[in-house]
Amino acid sequence: MTTDFPYMNASLPVAQRVEDLLGRMERTEKAAQLTQSFCFAIGELPDDFDIDALPEEHQAFVRQTQQIDAAVERGEIGSLLFIRDAAVANRYQAKALAGSRLGIPLIFGFDVIHGLRTVLPVPIAQAASWDPAVITAGAQVAAREARASGIQWTFAPMIDIARDPRWGRIVESAGEDPFLTSIVAAAQVHGFQGNLGPESIIAGPKHFAGYGAARGGRDYEDAEISESELRNVYLPPFKAAIDAGAHNVMSAYMDLNGVPASGNSRLLNDMLRGELGFEGFVVSDANAVKSLETQHFAADAADAAARAITAGVDMEMSMSEPAYASLPQLVEDGRLEQSILDEAVRRVLTVKFALGLFENPFVEDTKMERVLGDPGHRDTARVSAERSIVLLKNDGVLPLAPNQTATVAVIGRLADSKRDTLGPWVFGHSTDETVSILEGIRARAGSELRVEYAAGVGVPDRAFPSPFALQDPDPGSGGIGVIDDDDEELDRAVAVAARSDIALVVIGERQDQAGETASKSNLDLPGRQLEMLQRIAATGTPVAVILMAGRPLDLRWADQNVSAIVQGWYPGTRGGDAIASVLFGDVSPAGRLPFTWPRHVGQVPMIYAHYRTFAPQDQDKRYWNEASTPLYPFGYGLSYGKFEYSNLQTDSSDIAVGATTNVSVEITNTSEREADEVAQLYIHQRYGTSSRPVRELKGFERVTLLPGETRKVSFQIGPQQLSYWSDVTGSWVQDSTVIDLFVGGDSLAQLTSSLRVK
Measured between alpha carbons, how far apart are the two ends of the chain, in Å? Predict the structure, then answer.
């Protein structure tokens, strides 16, 4: 390796350095830069270690690691994922630099989805905060911890629109709405990437595109999405992430409209790069390139490689034997253009230079524990959780009043499960630092209240175990899945509730029942949790439900029969403290639902932004057996405060096509306590080139109001909010029309006005 070449000169522009390096690379070296491999590092093994003595499944694991080690030393890999220790990253980086003729460093990626050591609320919960600043702050914490651990790139945010709650990965999403998801996407990208300094990481929005529309909510199934819905609903969050500066995008696994997304040139080259303006590099989802053969799209692995890179997939995420190893021969045989290979390498190298990896390839591993242990990170996690909690029902039992309550029953195994408090899709966490809901309530109650705990019924195991359990360094959920003692524990829970002033019943789903490969055929509470809730309510003790889940569950009985319902999500490292602060009234809840909450799985998919269609007056009577309306509408959430909306105005009642005006409204806190409200603006277009949904979110702002305070909130309305893709013209249009405006605290907002566009 030499330092005399221009590409090693940090004072030169990145583009110039990239071109110089690219011109010196051989085809095999180029293919290496486009290969990312899974690496479950196990450390150096003694020379006399007997692999054959291990169980067969462990042998494969060890041999895979040895193969990766050897490939890195030969300079055949450009990126590794799943390494989360600075010292291990440095060891692999040293091997890579020694094995690279030109001294090209590795880039390390990892699933930093909602935190690393400090675990933030799951992404769907963060979206429920409707607070971009808090979301950005959380992503900054995650980036800081990741970079200190040797990670420079995260496969996040996941910004797939999720409109079917059966889909397990709704927990990773920002919900059903493209406007809210776009705001959340930009906030996360800003938080992760910052200015690409030493405490920033590359953001990788995923999965492009339409993964959230899998048939039946079944993970990995194909999706059929109309051109109009694809452009109006599924693409805007990616546009927002790209405009925020995202340097990477991950392509999806599944077939979209009959073409696998990772082999779809129209999707990746024409739409992503041509229309959305993406200039970074595309990585495939895990094994998605080789899967082109599995999906009967490509003839073999080499054909899959040629079709994927030609379609716009720059880097292959490979679990073993990368298909992109065939790229040099494909060029040699004339099956792949050299310019396509070079352009993919150019994009990857550009990011490595931009991150400063050529100048600083190693991590200062002595500061890793200090950064991971920063107490300020835990404070950020607590604030994020507090602002994410949604109060769904309250007849006055909350907040808890210590002067009126002597004994509190906390019931439910999830209440005492630290691992489940963190939620799915975390791998660098420590449950030693996690505050469970039970611990949070006990700490907040102090000596003022007597807190008595009963485990209650178990939450049964999955019928098909999660494939990610082996990757979890701290999977312990105690005896949460044990159901042999259900009868005994249920009787004890009922007895504890009966002698208490209020029962706080924690129910929901275990963390491995949400996320990837965690789709579900119904929305029922697992096991006998509903029976437990019914028996506790029958004691006459007031009941407040705390729901731990990443999807809406069937709460019809609870909504009719308990005193309060709190959607606590999977709230993260300081989740127990956050939930306690809401229960005791230290914080007034202001989280709002980022999805429509159906009454029953038979209504799915149910969204607020539906069309009027035929007989709109009977929209609530589509089913003969129950109302075809949601249990809770999109944007919904209660508060300990009370708010009134008034004086809805537009700067002008008429505007020209292409012009912009302001919409303002006054919000008054009519209660006697400080509280947050989320003001939401919805529109409906009365007529035009195409019909439009009954309501569409086009603006929101979370505001803190003192008792009696009135605040004016303003929103902009212009072509960005009023344009849409029309199948009539095959293009984006803005119509001369009348726009109905609705402002309020959820998607059923009643304060209305109109705006004429001429």
Answer: 66
Phi, psi of 85 (to 5 degrees): -130, 130
Q: What's the residue count for the chain?
A: 758
Give dist(CA 446, CA 449) in Å, integer.
7
Please give the Cα distance from 664 to 758 (Å, whole number): 21
DSSP 3-state of 634: coil
With b meaning 16 or more CB within 10 Å and e meaning fewer, what string describes 34-56? bbbbbbebeeeeeeeeeeeeeee
DSSP 3-state assignment of 499?
A: coil
What would the pLDDT profile of 228-248 be if each residue is shown by its tens digit?
Answer: 999 999 999 999 999 999 999
Which residues are paired to 393 by β-bridges? 565
Average pLDDT over residues 710-733: 98
Residue 690 is encoded by which pair of tokens? Answer: 């195409």
**Closest Cα partner for 400 from 357, 458, 440?**
440
Q: What is the pLDDT of residue 428?
A: 86
Give the single-character DSSP code of 467: T
Nearest to 456 by CA among 430, 495, 402: 495
The pLDDT value recorded for residue 369 is 95
The region, left, alpha or beta by phi > 0 then psi within -120 to 50, assigned to residue 281 is beta
The span from the CA of 714 to the CA of 252, in Å, is 38
Tokens representing 348 are 């990857």
Query: How far is it, in rounded angstroms, from Cα 711 to Cα 677?
Result: 11
- How many degrees, rounded to 5, is the angle at CA 743 between CA 558 and CA 191? 80
Q: Which of 111, 164, 177, 285 is catalytic?
A: 285
- pLDDT at residue 93 greater than cutoff 60: yes
pLDDT at 103 over 90: yes
Summarize pLDDT for 520-531 with one digit per residue, the tens: 999 999 999 999
Helix (H, G, I), strand (E, B) or coil at 263: helix
CB 168 within 8 A of CB 216: no
- Assigned token pair, 24: 């010196």
SS3 assignment, position 552:
coil
Q: Is omega for the bond preceding 605 within 30 degrees of 0, making it cis?
A: yes
Average pLDDT on 710-730 reads: 98
| pTM for the full predicted model | 0.96
Q: Which two tokens stand for residue 153?
A: 């790139």
DSSP annotation of 158 reads B
What the block records as the tokens of 205 is 């929005």
- Beta strands 751-757; 737-744: pairing state: antiparallel
So what's the pLDDT on residue 50? 64
Tell me what pLDDT residue 385 has. Answer: 98
Lowest-pLDDT range, 49-63, 238-252, 467-481, 511-525? 49-63
DSSP 203-237: ---B-BTTGGG-GGG-TT--B---HHHIIIIISHH
Q: What is the mean pLDDT of residues 75-104?
A: 96
What pairing do the DSSP bridges indicate for beta strands 255-256 and 259-260?
A: antiparallel
3-state secondary structure of 290: coil
Secondary structure (3-state) at 127? helix
- Coil/strand/helix, residue 384: helix
- Cα(34)–Cα(484) distance, integer angstroms: 51
CA 613 to chain centre: 32
Q: Annotated catalytic, 554?
A: no
Pairing status of strand 407-411 against strand 502-508: parallel
Give the separation between CA 561 and CA 539, rounded to whole angstroms: 12
Q: How far apart (Å, rounded) are the C-alpha atoms in residues 718 and 740?
A: 13
pLDDT bin (cut points 50, 70, 90) of residue 4 is confident
